[in-house]
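Incident log, structure service

09:12 report received: a user says their structure output differs between two submissions of the same chain.
09:20 pulled the input from the user's history:
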Amino acid sequence: QVRLLESGGGLVQAGGSLRLSCVASGITFSIYTMAWFRQAPGKQRELVASFDTDDATYYIKSVKGRFTISRDNTKSMVSLQMNNLKPEDTAVYYCAARNDLALFTQYDYWGQGTQVTVSS
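09:34 re-ran on a clean worker, output below:
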């Protein structure tokens, strides 16, 4: 049974920090690219950050320099450290996993989502 269990969401003031964590079970974690998506009210879901199996990372421009994605394969965990949070970061954040060895790769598994709210 595949599960992605998220934690760390909450309410913080602008300029504050928050750390999201996601623990995966039921998959061979080391062969999966892990990513964080978010969806704000009235907006489409967007990829925030990803950590590939070759250790390459990606960030959308709006969070670059403020957010850091990391992973620990021994714990099957991916985290998102969010610093200097802005009200524009308010969204539901989702953990997702993509099998990089699949013939037709896609984000196959998703967490339940965790709410991040940043007040002014």
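09:41 both user submissions now match this output. Likely a transient worker issue. Closing.
09:42 reviewer note: Residues 2 and 27 are 6 Å apart (CA to CA). The first strand starts at residue 3 and ends at 7.
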